[in-house]
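quick one before i forget lol
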Amino acid sequence: MKCMNTPRLETERLILRKFTENDMEALYLILADKEVNTFLPWFPLQNMEEAKAFFEARYAAAYEKPRACAYAICLKEDNYPIGYIQVDMEESHDLGYGLRREFWHRGIVTEAGEAVIAQVKKDGLPYITATHDINNPRSGGVMRQLGMKYQYSYEEQWQPKDFLVTFRMYQLNFNGEDGDVFKKYWDSSAVHFVEPGIL
């Protein structure tokens, strides 16, 4: 697998690039909004110092590794980050994303996701997964638009927020083997099941 470290990508409306130290205000605006944060795994940022620490821990550290896929989502008109999208390079190859509320419902994450998926497929990843809280079905809609297929649901005591969440797990295989399913979440959860009627 030859995965590059977050090569710059462009779509019709978007620039997907690395976050830089000049993006602290933008990162704060993305991650401080409580409504945006509802379904994210960390607490809302409280100040610019927390934004800087978040950048150092999640982005600067990732960009120092041989391979990473951690993008700022920017509109072409100003190249200013309005969201993020990433694929984890650990075993799950988990696709995650977040977007400022005022840019919701415009197909931006789907557009960014299509470009990122094309890149990681080209880089040789065998599959990607993604999970969403059952109370956030719109995120599942994005996953389906990206060609991902529902596999199963499971319960997890979500950290660091420490409350019980039922997640739906989606997967997209690039090797043509639709029967290959990432089972780690299933195996690690005492409560797991397949919901009928979920696409």
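fyi Strands lie at 9-10, 14-17, 70-75, 81-87, 95-99, 127-133, 149-158, 163-173, 192-193.
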